[in-house]
Structure formats: structure tokens, C-alpha cells
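Review form for a predicted model. The reviewer records the input and the model, then writes brief findings.
Reviewer: anonymous (R2)
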Amino acid sequence: MATRTLLTLEQFEQLPDDGMRHELDEGELISTMLPTVGIHGKVQTKIVRLIPESLGLTLVESGFRLTSDTVRAPDVSFIRSERAAQMDLNRRFEGAPDLAIEIISPPETAEDIVHKVSQYLNAGAIVWVVYPKQRAVHVYESSKNARILEAEDLLECPTLLPGFSVRVADIFA
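Model under review:
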């Protein structure tokens, strides 16, 4: 049986900057250094550019403390203007972003994604999971409200991003 090394949030916060990306998953340290493939970066940049700045703050790979033992860094995250104005950008964010966007890369498993989606939803986020290879976006507004959008469908989120609408295919263009 494999052993897991568990860290407290305080121990996690004290980790030295070693050039790796770290997340804390229910106390377990998750470290990655593998660079993503080009399509991941292209889609990530496109999404950031598509979300109007007037609606709030869009971030890339910023850490959010979802629970006392879980810190996640979505590929893209969005925080409404009203909420962003109250946040200290020099500290790790408490709670989930309003929107967490994960872009699927080859090493990620379905189990990994389901786990992350569940963590984001439980912390109060809406979640988009973007599948570049399939040119699709899965939208989770709750564990009981999920949609699969394909190339010609419109990606919209009226409660969070009023006026925002983009054809799914345009994310990959």
C-alpha cells in the first residue's frame, strides 16, 4: 500500500518556491512540473481574453483555499467585481472562485477531474471543464445541473457573466 504524506495548511504555506506547481488535496500534497502542451496554453489564453474585464477579475493558476485542507489552482478562475474588490491580491484567496475552469491535459484522468469538480462545487463555484481534443465544454452549476456543450453550442453563464456568450468552437479557434 502506498503511503501518503499529509500536510496541514500551515505546512503547505511554508513550502519553499521550488518552481513546481503545488496544490493541497484534502491534506495531500500534489506537485506537478510537467509543462502543458501548446493547445492547453492557447485555450487558456483565449478564455482569459473572452471574459470581459468589466465583469470581474480573471486569473490564471491562482491558489484558492477551498477548505481547511484543500488548496486548488484552477487553470482559469473568475471572481465577480464586487467580490474581487474585497479581496487582498497579495494573499491566497479564501473560498472558491465564482467560476473555476479546468482545461483537460493528457495526463489527467476522469477520476481526477470528477474529484476536482466535486471540490469546486462543494465550495460554491460554477465549474467549466474544457476538453480541447473533443472541442467541448462541460458546465457544472451544481452536482445536479450539468450540461455538455459542443462546437456549435453557445457557452453562457447569465447569472455570473451577464451578456457573455461565445460559441464553443470559438474557444478553440
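Findings: The helical segments are 9-13, 38-50, 81-84, 110-122, 168-171.
Further findings: The chain has a mean pLDDT of 88.
Recommendation: see findings above.
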